From TrEMBL:
PROSITE patterns: PROKAR_LIPOPROTEIN (PS51257). It comes from the Bacteria. Residues 25-119 form the DUF4369 domain. InterPro entries: DUF4369. This is Thiol:disulfide interchange protein. The lineage of its organism: Bacteria, Pseudomonadati, Bacteroidota, Flavobacteriia, Flavobacteriales. Pfam families: DUF4369 (PF14289).
Length: 253
């Protein structure tokens, strides 16, 4: 009897800890050091690229919370009133935790769901790959500005050539990182976005892209990126349109 009561108690605890139901999201945010009353805006992007507000709340005692419904993962942003940058993250079913860094919005942390944890890890890896390019820009920014003011084309061209070389090198390494990630993370929303991006490249390897798509988790194939990939693959594999048949001899002019 005691065992049954304990099991029932555990079930009640588990149910009470589950703050979100199916197709629901909960954003639990911390805004340490940010004044009460500051506005937090949850934004999404429409088909034209314009940012549209989905929800708005006020900071209270260093915290904020948003709750709503969503049927599939999608990129959203958090905009803090007065901040120059936005916080990108993946809004999906589950509890998303956002810790805003008021001194450096780019250092804000998002976690709590599978796709957001993956997004943070993926970004960290890509940053490592692109570090060489960023270091070059930081190191040579002052020299480039001085050369432009002095109209020193020799220095300008030299820096540009070196920059282009590093840019190409980083581009190849980044592309390899994207593909490697997609091959090993079939359940990640980021993988669907990577495949979609690959198909926008005129030199895309259709067979490779199709193989990655076929390996995607079925739930991702039903998302907007998943449907777009399927449509794009069908278009790319379709035979070239045949020209219109010539008009009958009697109708020729």
């Amino acid at each position: 009897m005691k065992k049954i009561i304990l099991l029932l108690s555990a079930a009640v605890v588990l149910i009470s800890c589950n703050k979100v139901g199916k197709d629901e999201y909960l954003i639990s945010g911390t805004a340490t050091g940010i004044d009460n009353g500051k506005t937090i805006i949850l934004e999404t992007q429409d088909a034209t690229g314009m940012m549209l507000p989905k929800d708005t709340v006020k900071v209270e005692n260093g915290k904020f919370e948003m709750k709503g419904n969503i049927t599939e993962p999608a990129f959203y942003t958090i905009q803090l009133e007065g901040a120059q940058a936005k916080i990108p993250f993946i809004l999906e079913n589950g509890e998303v935790t956002i810790a805003i860094d008021k001194d450096s919005i780019q250092k804000s942390k998002v976690s709590g769901t599978y796709n957001n944890d993956e997004y943070a890890t993926f970004n960290a890896e890509i940053t490592k790959v692109q570090k060489k390019l960023m270091d070059f820009q930081t190191k040579n920014m002052q020299a480039m500005n001085a050369a432009q003011q002095a109209k020193d084309t020799v220095v300008i061209n030299g820096l540009m050539q070196e920059f282009s070389k590093i840019q190409e090198e980083v581009g190849v390494a980044s592309k390899a990182k994207y593909v490697a990630y997609a091959e090993t993370h079939p359940k990640s929303f980021i993988t669907a976005l990577i495949i979609q991006g690959m198909l926008n490249d005129p030199t895309a390897d259709i067979a490779k892209s199709e193989k990655l798509y076929n390996g995607l988790d079925e739930s991702l194939k039903k998302t907007k990126p998943g449907i777009a990939i399927k449509t794009k693959l069908a278009e790319m594999k379709a035979p070239a349109a045949v020209g219109a048949a010539p008009a009958p001899a009697g109708e020729a002019k």
